[in-house]
């Protein structure tokens, strides 16, 4: 190009073009920067939104530092020893240092060999898991996990085990938080304590017991390796179904342990050659020690703290509570045995009442047998598998079988006749007991009852039995069954009378007594249990002989409003003020009535029956206490050598202390001369009262010693007559006697202590007169007794030894004495 003008124009155009391109480039550059910045901002906002969306509801770092896995609650007895636990998950929590190094190495080799290197997420493993998940979408197959131990801990902290990408993201977020809040040993401790390993075992310690019946410190190397294969899918390595697969996987873990330097090649080879050595699947340990007692404890705890973890940190099944109860194993055993023996004794001879239940043998029947309670330790629940000739094959809950010969099932069928064996058929569940090489049929009584034992000084319930067997039957007849106590209520009628001016020597007529009810109902006349009447008698004699006519007469004179107030104050019940209540027509429970008798033995002081002394949280802090009385100095660090500090005495009175003691003293006569003489040969001071309700539908005995009070009743759940021969003294009192012989065997023999002010006076228990002089050796000493009087109520009438001697010999003197008694009654205003 030679033209200078053209050349100049060319360069000018090029410069302009370059300028436009520069301006356009700069414009697009600025726009690109803005676009990139906008996208970055959007990405950041999206990340924050997604993070907030997925992180919502996850535990904070602070919450992770205080996280506590669910733990069972443990009940201790009165001696401090564990006797029961409440748990939905079998779990034992250990500190990280308590786990053997090789056991930790086994889990690291099986689950996360880079655990100590990564920050919570194994990114190569996570990428592989994501790729696997995408490749299997729509196939119905589950992708491999790729989770680190930290992520598994995070998963267990989340609610549920949802199979989704969102759950995986939340798991990764929480894993990141965990790594920032906890040390590696703390994370491993959480993992080893909470991981599910099959057989209802949560945590490695529980699994060690479930699979090998050992603690973690006792496990061998191959046993550790086996437990390490279980976290992913315990059922895949079940020793019963997949033993070969379990051995193969266990040996792989051993190989990984050797490759990671935890064991030597020689240790690996020896361990790989070992068998699995797993114990058979154990049925859960039967925790029926004090079954009714523990069920009542459970109900009270649930009412106070809730049942599941969502109800708070102190929940029964996950809070790790330590419950100190008043449960006394020896007293409980005596209570259970005495009541069961009494029920069986009453039921004996009435015939076999049929199978306990019936099962479909085509369905699994062993688990059902585990739910059947048969009472005694040497009785077992069994199902009839087949009958052939003169014997039946029976099966047990553990899968074993036995033989029931015809002769061992020869008791008659109740209401039908014929031998029980003839009525049995496959699927019937029965109770049997071992006899020689065979099994013999036993009968679960149709009649039932309840029994309670209590410490009268504190109100602590030491034992409770609410029926024949608590297993599979939660209805507690000791606390829930409302029954008429019959004559066992009478002491509270007389205690009220003693508070209102009467004395144990007061003369009360045992004679006809009628009351007008209404124009429609007319008159109601009462009668004694045996019919007949005995004329004027002392209060003591009337209580000892349980005379109905004397009781209603006393109630009428004292006033039923006062008597029902006493019943309410003593916690027996809230009744209408009608005369029939004085004979025990109002309903109550064994626990309530036993506690009322305990208050009598406690000199009328108020008692609240308690099964739980105090509750501690998992760290031992007391969070609830039954006895809230202040105790100055009880927590002193250094004892000063002075009298030990004690809580203040319980001073609230339900009834006057002297009236309570007089009642107890009278009730000692029931044992010595009255309706409970069957207890006399126990050889210790006892008080109590029998009871028989109309029918009779219920029979009772309540009483005890100065240090132990118990009550028992027997009756059908759907009340019906027990038979005319059934009475409190013949059926219930013998149950108490068997109980007392065992429970009181090693207790000191102590008398009932009289409160200040009581005067002891010798009286004639028939006439109520004060007796002077020694009683002749040839006369019945039961006629003269020491009686307890309040200072202002000692009897003024006296009788000397010579007069008593003449009266015992001469009928005329007796008639004259009766006439004087009648004159006395008239002068007293006619107590009749």
Description of the structure:
The chain is an alpha+beta fold and 832 residues long. Among the domains are: 12-56; 89-273, Orthogonal Bundle (Penicillin binding protein transpeptidase fold); 451-461 and 479-610 and 652-743, Beta-lactamase (3-Layer(aba) Sandwich), CATH 3.40.710; 759-827, no CATH class. Helix content is 37%, strand content 16%. It has 24 helices and 26 strands. The strands form eight sheets. Strands 6, 7, 8, 9, 10 and 11 form a six-stranded antiparallel β-sheet that branches. Strand 20 (687-692) and strand 21 (698-704) form a beta hairpin. Helix 5 (149-157) crosses helix 6 and helix 23 crosses helix 24. The longest helix is centred in the first third of the chain and has 52 residues, at 4-55. The model is unreliable at 824-832 (pLDDT under 50).
CATH topology of one domain, which one?
A: Beta-lactamase
User: What fraction, in percent, of the residue positions are helical?
Assistant: 25-40%
Which CATH architecture of one domain would you pick? Answer: 3-Layer(aba) Sandwich
Structural class: alpha+beta
Q: What is the CATH C-level name of one domain?
A: Alpha Beta
Approximately what portion of the residues adopt beta-strand conformation?
A: 15-25%
Over the alpha carbons, how many angstroms does the gyration radius reach? 40 Å
Report the span from N to C terminus.
Answer: 156 Å
Count the helices. How many? 24
What would the principal axes of the Cα set say about the shape? Answer: elongated
Instruction: Describe the largest sheet.
Output: 6 strands, antiparallel
Care to count the β-strands? 26
Indicate the mean pLDDT.
Answer: 84
By CATH, the superfamily of one domain comes out as: DD-peptidase/beta-lactamase superfamily
Low-confidence stretches: 824-832
């Amino acid at each position: 190009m030679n033209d200078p003008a053209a050349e100049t124009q060319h360069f000018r155009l090029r410069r302009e073009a370059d300028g436009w391109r520069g301006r356009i480039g700069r414009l697009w550059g600025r726009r690109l920067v803005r676009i990139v910045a906008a996208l970055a901002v959007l990405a950041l906002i999206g990340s924050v939104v997604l993070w907030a969306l997925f992180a919502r509801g996850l535990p904070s770092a602070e919450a992770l530092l205080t996280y506590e896995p669910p733990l069972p609650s443990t009940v201790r007895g009165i001696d401090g020893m564990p006797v029961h636990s409440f748990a939905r998950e079998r779990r034992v929590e250990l500190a990280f240092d308590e786990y053997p190094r090789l056991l930790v190495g086994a889990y690291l080799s099986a689950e996360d060999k880079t655990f100590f290197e990564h920050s919570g997420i194994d990114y190569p493993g996570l990428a592989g898991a994501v790729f696997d998940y995408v490749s299997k979408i729509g196939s119905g197959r589950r992708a491999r996990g790729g989770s680190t131990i930290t992520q598994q801990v995070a998963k267990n902290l989340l609610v549920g085990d949802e199979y989704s990408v969102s759950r995986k993201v939340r798991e990764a977020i929480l894993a990141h938080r965990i790594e920032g809040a906890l040390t590696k040993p703390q994370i491993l401790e959480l993992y080893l304590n909470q991981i599910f390993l099959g057989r209802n075992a949560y945590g490695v310690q529980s699994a060690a017991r479930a699979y090998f019946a050992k603690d973690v410190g006792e496990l061998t190397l191959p046993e550790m390796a086996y437990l390490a294969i279980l976290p992913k899918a315990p059922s895949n390595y079940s020793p019963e179904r997949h033993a070969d697969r379990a051995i193969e996987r266990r040996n792989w873990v051993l190989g990984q342990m050797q490759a990671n330097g935890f064991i030597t090649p020689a240790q690996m080879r020896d361990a790989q050659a070992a068998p699995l050595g797993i114990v058979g699947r154990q049925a859960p340990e039967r925790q029926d020690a004090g079954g009714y007692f523990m069920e009542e404890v459970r109900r009270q705890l649930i009412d106070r703290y809730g049942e599941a973890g969502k109800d708070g940190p102190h929940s029964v099944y996950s809070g790790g509570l330590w419950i100190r109860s008043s449960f006394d194993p020896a007293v409980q055993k005596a209570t259970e045995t005495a009541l069961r023996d009494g029920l069986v004794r009453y039921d004996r001879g009435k015939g076999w009442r049929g199978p306990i239940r019936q099962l479909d043998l085509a369905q699994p029947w062993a688990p059902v047998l585990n739910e059947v309670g048969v009472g005694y330790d040497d009785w077992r629940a069994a199902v009839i598998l087949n009958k052939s000739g003169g014997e039946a094959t029976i099966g047990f809950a553990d899968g074993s079988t036995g033989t029931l010969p015809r002769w061992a099932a020869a008791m008659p069928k109740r209401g039908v006749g014929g031998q029980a064996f003839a009525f049995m058929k496959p699927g019937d569940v029965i109770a049997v007991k071992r006899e020689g090489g065979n099994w013999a049929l036993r009968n679960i009584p149709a009649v039932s009852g309840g029994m309670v034992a209590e410490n009268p000084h504190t109100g602590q319930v030491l034992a409770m039995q609410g029926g024949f067997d608590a297993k599979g039957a939660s209805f507690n007849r000791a606390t829930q069954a409302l029954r008429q106590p019959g004559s066992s209520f009478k002491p509270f009628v007389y205690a009220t009378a003693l508070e209102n001016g009467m004395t144990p020597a007061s003369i009360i007529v045992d004679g006809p007594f009628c009351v007008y009810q209404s124009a429609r109902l007319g008159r109601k006349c009462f009668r004694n249990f045996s019919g007949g009447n005995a004329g004027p008698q002392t209060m003591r004699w009337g209580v000892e002989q349980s005379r109905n006519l004397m009781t209603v007469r006393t109630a009428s004179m004292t006033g039923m409003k006062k008597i029902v107030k006493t019943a309410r104050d003593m916690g027996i019940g809230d009744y209408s003020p009608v005369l029939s209540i004085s004979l025990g027509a109002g309903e109550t429970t064994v626990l309530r009535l036993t506690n009322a008798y305990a208050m009598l033995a406690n000199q009328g002081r108020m008692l609240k029956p308690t099964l739980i002394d105090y509750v501690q949280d998992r760290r031992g802090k007391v969070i609830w206490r039954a006895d809230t009385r202040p105790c100055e100095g009880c927590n002193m660090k250094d004892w000063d050598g002075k009298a030990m500090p004690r809580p203040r005495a319980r001073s609230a009175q339900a009834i006057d202390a002297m009236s309570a003691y007089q009642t107890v003293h009278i009730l000692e006569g029931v044992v010595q001369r009255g309706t409970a003489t069957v207890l006399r040969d126990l050889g210790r001071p006892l008080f109590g009262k029998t009871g028989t309700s109309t029918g009779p539908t219920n029979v009772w005995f309540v009483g005890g010693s100065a240090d132990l009070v118990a009550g028992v009743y027997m009756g059908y759940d759907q009340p019906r007559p027990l038979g005319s021969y059934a009475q409190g003294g013949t059926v219930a009192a013998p149950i108490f006697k068997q109980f007392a012989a065992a429970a009181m065997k090693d207790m000191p023999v102590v008398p009932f202590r009289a409160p200040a002010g009581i005067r002891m006076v010798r009286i004639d228990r028939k006439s109520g007169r004060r007796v002077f002089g020694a009683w002749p050796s040839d006369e019945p000493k039961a006629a003269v007794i020491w009686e307890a009087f309040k200072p202002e109520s000692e009897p003024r009438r006296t009788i000397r030894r010579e007069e008593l001697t003449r009266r015992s010999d001469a009928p005329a003197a007796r008639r004259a004495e009766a006439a004087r008694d009648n004159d006395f009654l008239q002068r007293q205003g006619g107590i009749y």
